[in-house]
Each structure stands twice: as C-alpha cells, then as structure tokens.
Amino acid sequence: MPAAAEFASVAPGSDYDTVRRVLAYITENWRAQPTIETIAGAAGATPTDIHHLFRRWCGLTPKAFLQAITLYHAKNLLGASASVLDTALEVGLSGPGRLHDLFVTHEAMSPGEWKAGGGGLSLSYGFHPSPFGEALIVTTPRGLAGLGWVSDGLDGGKVVGGRAEALADMMRRWPHAQYRFDPQATAPYAARIFDPKAWSAETPLRVVLIGTDFEVRVWQTLLKIPVGRATTYGDVACHIGKPSASRAVGMAVGKNPISFVVPCHRVIGKSGALTGYHWGLTRKRAILGWEAGQTAG
DNA sequence: TATTATCGCGGAT
DNA sequence: ATCCGCGATAATA
C-alpha cells in the first residue's frame, strides 16, 4: 500500500496499479527468469502481498497467473480444433450478437450514415474505475460507442498517460461529434461491463459499431470469441471470407473503439505472440490473465 | 503512394 | 530453436 501512493496519478493503491508494475517488470526482465521474491520487490510489495493480490484480483495464484500469460498458454487459447470462431457457432447459441459472454446486441453505423445524419448526434463521456485502470466510456442514446483506458504511467518504458490524452484519442476517431462530459450517463455502463455478476442475457448490453463496412464486419466477428479463448488475425480474415486479408484485419482490429467489450485482446498472432494492443501490451496481458481467472472458476 | 496490432518462407545465427 | 529479412497481400489516409 505505501508504495502505491507514489503512483498517485490514477487509482492509487488499486489492484491493477500493482498488477501493471508486476507485468511491466516481467516483460522487461523475463530473460533473467526472476523469482517471485525479485518480482515482488520490484513492484514494491512482499511475496505475500502479491499472492493475496492475484487471488483477489483474478482468482489465480501468482504462479498460475504468470503461466497464464506465457506464450505456451497463449497457443492453448487458440484451441486445437480448426477455428475458435467455428466452434463458437457450433455451440448453437441462438441469435447473432449474444455469443459474447457479456451478451451484447450490436448495431452498425456506417460512415455515410454517420456523416450525413450525424449532425445532431452527441456523445456522452465519463471516467470510471475498472479492474484494468481508469476507463473512459463513451455512449450514444442508442448504446455504448467507445471504451478506452487512461494510461497510468509507464508501458514498455514509454511514458504515456492522462485523461486528456485518453479523451483526445477517442475524439480523433469521430472528430465531428459533439462531446459532453456526463458521468451519470456512462456510470451504469461501467457498472455492467466490469462486474461479471451483472452480465445477463435478459438485458443485453447495447453497443453501436461506428466504422467502415470492413471494420464493422471484423468487429462483429470479434464478438463471437468466447471468454478465455483466443483466435488469430488469419482466422478472422477467413471468417469474413477474405483468407488473405490477415494484415488488413490486423489494422481493423487495432482500430476497435470499444476495448474489452469488443474483445480485440483475444486476437493474437498465429505463433501465439501477442503482437500489439492500442492501449499497451501490458494491459492486453493483464486482461487475458484476468479472463483466465474468470474461466478457471 | 505509403502505411500497418500478418504470414510463411528460407538462411543465418 | 530462434531470429531477421523479404515478398505477397488487403484496406486506409
């Protein structure tokens, strides 16, 4: 707890704050095969603290968590059979859009519709705590349009961060929209999204996909990847009928505006390498590790 | 035209 | 085993 106060920029003392430092240390020093004592020391905590933290945060012991973010485990996420996307469909869940465990119903808003009729469209935004740091949530009257993260310091040695930058990043996606700070409008979304106990099929989460036709098709495909599984850029490309477009898929995945809800973190390279994440690879690891804990129980 | 959060192939460590 | 460099490839600004 005392060490966390030094990182007062965001959610001081939060679980993710420490998790982030553990992950950052491991990614930079994995070659040295650091012991749990060394890792704990670098994160400013005792091994016992670390143990309790991971049990509380994701339900896994530190050892299990570390194993969950290795390349070997990432390959397992991909699944032995043909494609995770196909097996998801075989399970026989009824409608499109409720395959995600968050029970999302989605509608698409094409750029044309967005530019032509978008004059009156206004977006509400707010900042809310989450298991992965402070989240920026953007909504329309029709549903969730954006979810991003406020960077909280270092990622891969690069200094980034702040609410202003998080908001600017989101506004860059739809520069012509009207933005209104309205935490009361966005708070219910935060409560729903980050509490697995609140995930329910009866009241699906409404999301609005704003992008090109190609991007929307990719994002819709991502919604079919179950919690605790992963797929590859090439698999997504096959799924939308363009087997050779894996690179273009990577670009579209990277532009996903609704982090976590549209699970772009569950797309990894064919080798099992995590390859990239708009909000930092450290966060991608953290989310995948957290999800491993959710499915383990 | 020049960018990619890709992929698979050789050839060199 | 692992890692680079390369070309093919599809969608954007």
UniProtKB/TrEMBL annotation:
Alphabetized CDD domains for the sequence: ATase
Enzyme Commission number, as recorded: 2.1.1.63
GO MF annotation: an example: methylated-DNA-[protein]-cysteine S-methyltransferase activity
Keyword annotations from UniProtKB, A to Z: DNA damage, DNA repair, Methyltransferase, Transcription, Transcription regulation, Transferase
HTH araC/xylS-type domain residues: 20-117
Catalysed reactions, as listed in the record: a 6-O-methyl-2'-deoxyguanosine in DNA + L-cysteinyl-[protein] = S-methyl-L-cysteinyl-[protein] + a 2'-deoxyguanosine in DNA; a 4-O-methyl-thymidine in DNA + L-cysteinyl-[protein] = a thymidine in DNA + S-methyl-L-cysteinyl-[protein]
InterPro entries: Homeodomain-like_sf (IPR009057), HTH_AraC (IPR018060), MethylDNA_cys_MeTrfase_AS (IPR001497), MethylDNA_cys_MeTrfase_DNA-bd (IPR014048), MethylDNA_cys_MeTrfase_DNAb (IPR036217), MGMT_N_sf (IPR036631), WH-like_DNA-bd_sf (IPR036388)
Xref: SMART domains: HTH_ARAC (SM00342)
Keyword flag Ligase: no
GO terms (BP aspect): methylation
Key word DNA damage present: yes
PANTHER family xref list: METHYLATED-DNA--PROTEIN-CYSTEINE METHYLTRANSFERASE (PTHR10815)
The protein's name in its UniProt record: Methylated-DNA--[protein]-cysteine S-methyltransferase
Source organism: Bosea massiliensis
Organism lineage string: Bacteria, Pseudomonadati, Pseudomonadota, Alphaproteobacteria, Hyphomicrobiales
